[in-house]
Amino acid sequence: MTLSAQQSDAVVDDDLGSQLAAERAHLDLSRAALHRMRERAEALFSAGGQVAGDPYAAEMLGRTLSRRVAELADDPSTPLFFGKLDFGGTPDSSDPDRTDPDRREPDNPDHADHAGRSYHIGRRHITDEVGEPLVLDWRAPVSRSFYRASVRDPQGVATRRRFGFGAGVLTSFEDEHLDRGEELGTASRILTAEIERPRVGPMRDIVATIQPEQDELVRADLADSICVQGAPGTGKTAVGLHRAAYLLYLHRERLRRSGVLVVGPNRAFLSYISAVLPALGEVEVAQATVEDLVARLPVRATDDPAAAVVKHDARMADVLRRALHGYVCKPEEPIVVSDGSYRWRIGADALRRVVDEARREGLPYGTGRERVRARVVGLLQRQSEARRGDSPSDAWLRRMGKAKPVAEFLDAVWPAVTPEGLLFTLFSDAAALATAAGDLLTAEEQALLLWSKPPRSAKAAKWSAADAVLIDEAVGLIERTTSFGHVVVDEAQDLSPMQCRAVARRSEHGSITLLGDLAQGTAPWAATDWRVSLDHLGKPDAAVVPLTVGFRVPAAVVTFANRLLPALAVDVPPAESLRRDGALDIRTVVEPSGVDDATVAEVRAALAHDGSVAVIAADAAVERLRTVLTDAGVEAGTAEDVESVARVTVVPATLVKGLEYDHVIVVEPAQIVAAEPRGLHRLYVVLTRAVSRLAVVHAEPLPTPL
Ligand SMILES: Nc1ncnc2c1ncn2[C@@H]1O[C@H](COP(=O)(O)OP(=O)(O)OP(=O)(O)O)[C@@H](O)[C@H]1O
C-alpha cells in the first residue's frame, strides 16, 4: 500500500501526521544547517584576502570562496530535499565506520554498507555541526538508488519516499515499499503534479523526478559521448543540463579547469534554461549559441540561401584546408644569412626537407610555419657551432629567427595567412577558388561563393553568419582551438556539418551530450541521420539513445501534432505522452479579418487559467498580433525577455524551439508552413510547445496532413 498525506490538516492518520511533523523538523534542521554552512563560507570569504599569501592566491581563494557562497544559496521556494531512502536490514555493528559518523561514507554505492540507514536526498549536501549528513546531494552515488531502485532491483532500498511541497512548505509524502513489492513508477502523484504544474517563468530543474531512463543518461561516464534522440518534451534539455551538473560534481577539479559548455539554438532559449544549473549549485557553466562560439567578427551581411547551403556543406572544410596548404611552396633558393664576419648558407635541398617534414607532421598551419622557422634556425645554429666552437646565445637564436633572409624565405614558402585573408582570397578570386575547390564544388557552387563586388581588402569585407563559421574553421586550421571538458549541444538536429565541426573543435579532448529530434529540424542543412552529425562532431562511436516518454505535451495534442510526422521524412521512434489531461481546440474563422478577434478571444479565455500563454505565429504576423493584443488591453511580452511579468508572450514561430507554455495559441498554421522551405517541420515544433492546452486559430485551410 502507498501511504500518502495530503495537506497536513487533512491528515487522517496520527502516524502519518507525526511522520510529516518529523520530516518538517528535519527540513528546519537542514535549513538551519545550510544557513550555518553559508555563514561560515561568507566569513571565510571576507577573511580570504588576509589569509592568502600573495595577490594571485588571494584572488583564486576569493573566487573559490565566493563560488562556495553562491553554491550554498538557499532559495526558500525550492525544497532542500525531495526524497528519502530507507535501506532495509540492520546496521553492521562490527563496522568501525558505523560508530564514527565522520568516517562513514554516504557516497559508497555498495548498498550493503547502508543497511538500516536512511538518507534524505536533496539538491546539495548539507551536514550538521559534527559533519553528519542531513541531506545528500542527488548526485552522490548512493542517491542513484533514489532514481533507479525498483521492485525487481531494489538495491537494498526498503522504502522510497517522495515529498510534495507547496511554496516551500512540506505538505505531503508518498512512499513506495519496494520490499513489499510496491512501486508507483509514473503513477506517482508527486511526479504527476510536477509534470502537470502550470508553467511560469524560466525552466526548472527536475532533480526530484528524474526518470530511470533519464537517470541513465544523466549519470553516463564523463568519457562517454552520447546522442539523445527524443520527441518533443521527453526531457532532452533537462537531461543535458542535469548531466552537466552531475559531471561537475563527479569531476569537479578537472572540469573546472577545462570547463563545461552548453550550446543552445538562440538567446531566448538560453535565457529560458539559464536558471537550471545555478539552482543546482553550478554557477560556472558557459552557455552560448553556435553563433556566439564563432563570433570572431561582427556579422554584417546576409547570404543568398543557396550560397549559405554551400558554405555550410562539409566539403567546405576540404576546400579551406586545400586553399590554406596551397600557400606552402617548394623552396627553390638557398638562404644566405650574414652574421658579423660570417655568412651562413642553407641549400635549397635542405630547406625542401625541412618544409616537407613540417608538412608531414600535420600541425596547424601557423604552428607549422613556426616549426619551419625553428628548424631553419637550428640549421644555422649547427653551422655557427661548428665554426665558432660554442653554443650561441638565446638572443642570437632570436635574431636569426627574425633575420631578413629567414623571414623572406618563410614568407615565400610558408606565408603567414589570416583566417579572414584566406576567405577573402577564395571569395574574390575565381582562379584561387577553382584551384582549391575544382573537383569538390561544381562551377555553379563556386559561382555562388564568389562576391559579385569584392571588397578592397579582407578588413573591408562584410561577413555573413555562414562566413563566420568558415572563418572559425580557418582559425582551427591555423591554430589549435581550446577544448572544453564536456559540451552539451541542444537542438543539435539544426547544426550544419560546418557548425558540427566548430563544436568538434571545442570538444576535441572532451566528451559531448548531443540532444535533438530529427523531426524538429528546420534548418536547410538539418540532420537526417545522427551518425552523420556524430562523424562531423568527431564522436563517431557515440551511442544514439531514444527517449520516448513525453512529459510536456498532453496526449490529445501529441496525437494532433503527430499527424505531421509522416510528411516530415524522418525515421524517429514515436513518443508516448504521460499526460492524459489537456485540451485541443481548433477554431475555424470564416473571414481572414476575423482571425485577430478570435486570437484576442482565445487569449482572454486562456488567461482564465493559471500559467503562461503564448501566441505563436509566422514571423511576419508577430508585430501585428502584438499591436492587436495591446489595443485590446492585453499586455504581451517577447520570448527574449524572461524578466517580463506579462503572462502573455507573442512569439515568432522561428524562435519557439525548445520553449514551452501552458497555453499555446497558434495563429494561421498555413502561414507558418508557407514561410520557409521546412515549414512543416517548423509547424511540428510550434504545435508541440503546449503544456496544457493548444488552440489553433485559422481562416486559411489547415495544412494537408492536419
Ligand atoms: N522526469 C521529469 N520530471 C518532471 N518533469 C520533467 C521530467 N522530464 C522532463 N520534464 C519536463 O518536461 C518538459 C519538457 O522537457 P524538455 O524541455 O527537457 O524536453 P525536450 O525533449 O528538450 O523538448 P523539445 O524537443 O521540445 O526541446 C519540461 O518542463 C521538463 O521540466
TrEMBL record:
Residues 83-123 are annotated as: Disordered. Residues 209-554 form the UvrD-like helicase ATP-binding domain. ATP binds at residues 230-237. One of its GO terms (molecular function) is DNA binding. It comes from the Bacteria. Keywords: ATP-binding, Helicase, Hydrolase, Nucleotide-binding. Residues 95-116 have a biased composition (Basic and acidic residues). GO terms for biological process: recombinational repair. GO terms for cellular component: cytosol. This is DNA helicase IV.
